[in-house]
Description:
The protein is α/β, with parallel strands linked by helices. It is 24% helix and 38% strand.
Amino acid sequence: MRLDGFGIMVNDMAAMIRFYRDVLGFEIKEREDTSNVYLLKDGTLFLLYGRKDFEKMTGQRFEYVKGLNGHTELALYVDTFEDVDIEYKKAVSKGAVSVMEPSDEPWGQRTCYIADPEGNIIEIGSFNRPFER
């Protein structure tokens, strides 16, 4: 078994598509009125599932967190400390909610946190060197 991608359940598909496409630069080919969206960022598959559609498909009801969601984090890496500040300011100016402004952490990382329209936490961070897998 291998990891193919990951996803989140969303309430307002159109708003979430616009956020991930227009604010964070994810590649999206689906329309805004769909119930299941495949996004691609740097070779990683990220999916948005409509909550109501998923519940209908599974025949079950689920509980959803309201407000800022501390259950998961989506981490985005940039090559330099300066890029953290630039991308943070860019995202907030385009509508991302600021959770924590850029700061230098004791473990050598510069990081910040924003939230998407439904409160999912997104980290933008760097160790001031190009990304290594």
